[in-house]
Amino acid sequence: MRRKGLASMAVQTIATSNDTADNAAENAADTPVDLGPAQALSCRECGHRVPLGPSFACEECFGPLEIAYDFTSYDTEELRARIESGPANIWRYAPLLPVPADVAEKPNINPGWTKLVKADNLAAALGVSPGKLFIKDDSGNPTHSFKDRVVAQALEAARAFGFTTLSCSSTGNLAGAVGAAAARAGLRSCVFIPHDLEQGKVVMAAVYGGELVGIEGNYDDVNRFCSELIGDAAGEGWGFVNVNLRPYYAEGSKTLAYEICEQLGWELPDQIVVPIASGSQLTKIDKGLQELIKLGLVADKPYKIFGAQAEGCSPVSVAYKAGHDVVRPQKPDTIAKSLAIGNPADGPYVLDIARRTGGAVEDVTDEQIVDAIKLLARTEGIFAETAGGVTVGVTRKLIEAGVLDPSLTTVVLNTGDGLKTLDAVAGTGLTATIRPTLDSFREAGLA
Amino acid sequence: MRRKGLASMAVQTIATSNDTADNAAENAADTPVDLGPAQALSCRECGHRVPLGPSFACEECFGPLEIAYDFTSYDTEELRARIESGPANIWRYAPLLPVPADVAEKPNINPGWTKLVKADNLAAALGVSPGKLFIKDDSGNPTHSFKDRVVAQALEAARAFGFTTLSCSSTGNLAGAVGAAAARAGLRSCVFIPHDLEQGKVVMAAVYGGELVGIEGNYDDVNRFCSELIGDAAGEGWGFVNVNLRPYYAEGSKTLAYEICEQLGWELPDQIVVPIASGSQLTKIDKGLQELIKLGLVADKPYKIFGAQAEGCSPVSVAYKAGHDVVRPQKPDTIAKSLAIGNPADGPYVLDIARRTGGAVEDVTDEQIVDAIKLLARTEGIFAETAGGVTVGVTRKLIEAGVLDPSLTTVVLNTGDGLKTLDAVAGTGLTATIRPTLDSFREAGLA
């Protein structure tokens, strides 16, 4: 499947836009920790660079900090061979992530390398050409959501910075991912949740044995408290995966892009449909695709990224349709709880990427989400959480609207597991009830 | 990791005890379907052979029918290379399974190649030597239990025999596995369950969109009805995965043995702890290990197989301890529902294997099961269903009793997912509740 044309790039070395051989050397001095190819933190807005550390906002302009890498030493075909012979998890891409080279040897939950399912039955139902529709099914991760990918990066950063407690605020998937990762790594974990969360979610978060602290207040109160804790002496030694470790954490989503392309035989898909919560995942998938192009691992060609939201929490979709560059916050009201971020930090970047690539942002109602969960389950045997209903539902809507081209290779993300959002399909039930006799069976028309 | 000594076996070809080149040729005539190396069905008790078909009991002696293979054409190192370059699922072992050679190309849910987790934290807790304890974590399968492995075999048999409906009786994991597999394959599914099952389990089984039929009666009534249906014209075209397709279905458990050995670098473990429901899984793991030895893929050495039951359903454990060869049925009463088979069909074979290999059969109380689920979660970040609590709990008990040697390589099976048996750990909850202030945080002693 590998394109012959790439062979001509075998002797080429590649630098990303942020890194040249010169500034990579300059950064070596300000890098006290070993996080592999990660060299520094760089502001996404103003480009200001600071050493690798537990920082997330630019001290100059308050813009978000991102990882700046040095990929200059990589030979394309050597890198490809190294990846292909690597482990069946995200650490096959360790040379492209902010982790030490020996990361695969350390105790961690080794997420990733989830299935890319050729979804011909779903394709037929949606009018997509056979062989062109794929589901990237991240319910196959250890705690059954894509959060394992991002937490695994944050864990390495926490180790590098000498943190002893792994923490987060959460109402769901993230709590389990942090609890499991910390348990395997032998770190303490402390997860903060609203005190009145449903019992099932509490159990899922509590079983890993870390501290699980209920905060008397709503999710906003929990977040405010966590920010306060980070700035206080009481928070010393604490790594909040999605706050002071966020630049590292967020990079985990790049692995979705890497895996999709490798699983397509080192080709870019034409179209990708990605759920939007904070928007970070979508921006990192774009970053990952760009890196593969620059590294010569895939041939450059146009691709479109589509963002998917629930109507009950659709700030980015609303802004997209209105032609705005900024996102007006919403108060979420949707069954898609894992996407219910009313003020998505990366909203403006998502708008930019959707427009730049020729994609779009769309939303679906809760009813359409449930329909899409059931459609995916009965066509492909994949039981998605509500976020998967959002992406499949938006895919259907965009095809019907003529926005998404059903003749092109399309990858739809399922980022979580239906077992965690059973309530969404609680109406599903028995198709018949019979007595244990053949007569009763025949009467029910089941033969 | 591969042993050098094996190289000397490179030109050798291997036959299993049931198959010689002669009777393989003889069987070619009575094999109307292509199920790869599977040649016939052979009675485990009397050896009587019949052509491949939807049969499960010997017409001569009513003994259970098993698959007889022809592996005579395999060269050890060619086979190893073929396996190692195969897909990251059970179909890498297609040459050793009753499936056509092109099975990986057909739509199915591609289970297997789940993680073998080096469980050093759990080892420390149990007093096992570092690097010697592993969890084979089958919660990573598509519907999060090992049932995906066995249903995938039954699906191929159903296709080969021209069945149009995939069916089973179930109260849990099997229903989901059959529903998902049939959906992906484009077959109709019809799953029979007791009509008064808990709503959560009904939803998990119903979401895949097949027929889900509630039977007015208990699980025994459901099973009796299914047997009646198979013998009736109304059941024509129906493949019951665990009844008339059982010989094929059961072979799926061999893949656990294959994966464990390959993931250990083509070595046999010294000790394996396997849960016992019908006992079929344990017998097929032994069969798989024996095949690897005969094929030269692993060096022969002694291994011990240990069976694990819940005290509330411990017919095999009781028989083992009493020195009996037969198993007296019990009425199950345990939280380990997925193992609650009071009259296990393969009980006598399990007793034989445990004794022959120098293993044992042991059971644990419901309280010990819950403790073991929590222990596994907090040490390794793996959230097991109750069956995983049974194996980990029995492992602990056998180590404490000096029966299981903590200095040897030991693999413990986790065959399912804690998300499906949340009730078992429902007592788990918040470790603290605080107000959203630093003072409250400090007062709670969380810093």
From TrEMBL, chains A, B:
Residues 111-416 form the Tryptophan synthase beta chain-like PALP domain. Keywords: Lyase, Pyridoxal phosphate. InterPro entries: Ser/Thr_Dehydratase (IPR050147), Thr_synthase-like (IPR004450), TrpB-like_PALP (IPR001926), TrpB-like_PALP_sf (IPR036052). This is Threonine synthase. Belongs to the threonine synthase family. It comes from the Bacteria. It is an enzyme of class 4 (lyase). GO terms for biological process: isoleucine biosynthetic process; L-serine catabolic process; L-threonine catabolic process; threonine biosynthetic process. It comes from Streptomyces roseirectus. Coiled coil: none annotated.
